[in-house]
Amino acid sequence: MPLPTALITGGTSGIGKASAELLHQQGYRVMVTGQNPDTLAAARKELPAGVIILRADSRSTSDTDHLASEVRTRFGQLDVLFLNAGISRAAPLEAVDEATYDDVFATNARGQFFTLQKTLPLLRDGSSVVFTVGIGAIRGIAGGSITAASRGALLAMVPSLAIELAPRRIRVNAVSPGAVETPIWSKSGLPPEALAEATEAMAARIPFGRMGSAREIAEVVAFLASGSSGYVTGQNIVVGGGSGIAA
């Protein structure tokens, strides 16, 4: 039998990279995308040699068309689509301008939706689609309104997409990481002192008393990708060390 295949957007760092490493270890043929030259270069050095690394910006429809073409040429079909690309922009309400708003939504919501649309013909019957959403979509975070809203748009899509694709037995789910130590934190726009303070405060509110790791999220992604989750669809799995459950 041919090896299963997986496409991971935003797969050159953090959760996407950890998921690529894990799925590759489990026998998948893996393609990852990214658009930052530095993380692309690092991924080419650090990911296993068999992982295909492609530059693609989820905001660009032409890049998405090219991505679908590359998947068709290299894999033929897909078994797993992990829609993980995203950005975070922390800012109070009065500081958000239209350009930032549009950029966040174009990356986090529109880009993931149209990547699914363009690759849908390549998804095998019985395959798995996983969105990265995030606990911020269902828990309030000061300064996180536009990031939460853009990710929340994905969460709102999941049940409808799960119903729409159920006749082909394509499962559609979301994973919502809590506070996780990934490079996206350093790109949040917060100064180093504020970032350190926010990290410490978050860890203090988590029942496990620590931030999560990218590998811990990847383990859940791998479960949703596998046949072990064959009767799971339309769900959002929160992986946050118990964040939000304390009174």
From TrEMBL:
A Pfam family of this chain: adh_short_C2
Alphabetized UniProt keyword annotations: Oxidoreductase
Keyword Oxidoreductase: yes
InterPro entries: NAD(P)-bd_dom_sf, SDR_fam
Protein name: Short-chain dehydrogenase
A single GO molecular function term of this UniProt record: oxidoreductase activity
Superkingdom per UniProt: Bacteria
CDD domains: SDR_c (cd05233)
Similarity field: Belongs to the short-chain dehydrogenases/reductases (SDR) family.
